[in-house]
Design a protein that fits this description.
The protein has 284 residues and is α/β, with parallel strands linked by helices. It is built from 11 helices and 12 strands. The two termini are 27 Å apart.
Length: 284
C-alpha cells in the first residue's frame, strides 16, 4: 500500500475494537482495486462520538463503519438515513457524499448476499433472537419481499421485543410473528414450514451450546444460517448438517456487509472471492 498526500481514510469506530478484522478486509480491497485509501480502527469513548463524526468531513474521509455501542448513538449526528437504516434504527456505515453524511446499514444486505443461491423474496423465515443483527436481517427481509417471518426469543425478552416489531409494522405494514423460544411445539411447527432458519443470537460462541433443542426435526430443503463465525462450525450448524441440511456461518455476512460499505464509499466492487480465501484460511 502506498500512502501519500492523496490517500483517503476510512475507519471502524467502536469500543472495544482492537480485535476487528475490518481493517484486514478493507485494506486488502483498497490494494486489490488500486484505490488510494487506508482503513484504520478507532477505539473511542461515547463523549468523543460527535467529534469523530465531524472529522469525517474535516479530513474528507470516505466514511466510517460503526460497531457496538455506537450504531444507534451516531444517528443524531448524520444528515440523512437510508431506508434500511431507518427501519433498523441503527447505522453501521457512514458515507461522506461531498460533505453530506449518510447513514446506511449493510448488515442485512451482507447477510442475504452470503447465502449461496438463495433469495428471500416470497419465502418464509424463522429467526432466533431480536438483537442488533436480528433487526438488520428482519428489516432487509421485509424490504426484499419475504412472505412470512417468525421471531423466537426467550419469554422473558418478549415484552422488550414487541415495541420494535410494532414500529416495524407501522412503517412497513408487515406483521412479524413473535413467539417464545421455550414453546418447542410452535418452534417445530414454524421451522417445518420455513425456507430459512437463522440463529441471530450469541448462543454457540462457547462452542458448546445451541439455541434450539436437538429434538427439532428440520425439513429437507431448509437452509440454516448462523451469524457466528468463531467457532467456524457452531454446535447449531453441526446439528443442522447432521440432518443433511445446507448450513452457513457468519463469516460471509461479515465479508459482504464490508463489500457493500466499500462499494458505497468507492463506487468499486470489492473482490470478495480473493478476500474470502484469506479469511477462511485465517478463521477455519
Amino acid at each position: 500500500m502506498k500512502l501519500d498526500g492523496y490517500t483517503r481514510l476510512a475507519a471502524v469506530v467502536a469500543n472495544p475494537i482492537k480485535h476487528s478484522i475490518s481493517p484486514f478486509i478493507h485494506n486488502r480491497a483498497f490494494e486489490a482495486t488500486a484505490t488510494n485509501g487506508a482503513y484504520v480502527a478507532w477505539e473511542i469513548e461515547a463523549v468523543d462520538l460527535a467529534e469523530t463524526v465531524a472529522n469525517i468531513r474535516r479530513y474528507q474521509m470516505f466514511g466510517i463503519n460503526l460497531s457496538m455501542p455506537f450504531k444507534e448513538q451516531v444517528i443524531p449526528y448524520l444528515d440523512e438515513l437510508s431506508d434500511e437504516a431507518r427501519l433498523i434504527g441503527a447505522v453501521n456505515t457512514v458515507v461522506n457524499d461531498n460533505g453530506t453524511l449518510i447513514g446506511y446499514n449493510t448488515d442485512g444486505k451482507g447477510f442475504f448476499k452470503s447465502l449461496p443461491s438463495f433469495t428471500i423474496t416470497g419465502k418464509k423465515m424463522t429467526l432466533l433472537g431480536a438483537g442488533g443483527a436480528a433487526k438488520s436481517i428482519l428489516a432487509q427481509a421485509i424490504l426484499d419481499g419475504v412472505s412470512q417471518i417468525s421471531v423466537f426469543v426467550r419469554s422473558v425478552s418478549m415484552e422488550k421485543t414487541r415495541p420494535y416489531l410494532d414500529k416495524l409494522q407501522e412503517q412497513t405494514g408487515f406483521k412479524v410473528d413473535l413467539c417464545a423460544l421455550e414453546d418447542v411445539s410452535v418452534l417445530q411447527e414454524r421451522i417445518a414450514e420455513s425456507d430459512l432458519l437463522v440463529n441471530a443470537t450469541s448462543v454457540g460462541m462457547d462452542g458448546q451450546s445451541s439455541p434450539v433443542p436437538e429434538s427439532i426435526v428440520l425439513p429437507e430443503p431448509l437452509l440454516v444460517a448462523d451469524i457466528i463465525y468463531q467457532p467456524f462450525e457452531t454446535p447449531f450448524l453441526k446439528w443442522a448438517r447432521s440432518q443433511g441440511n445446507p448450513a452457513v456461518n457468519g463469516l460471509g455476512m461479515l465479508l459482504y456487509q464490508a463489500a457493500e460499505a466499500f462499494q458505497l464509499w468507492t463506487g468499486k466492487e470489492m473482490p470478495t472471492e480473493e478476500i474470502w480465501q484469506s479469511l477462511t484460511e485465517k478463521y477455519q
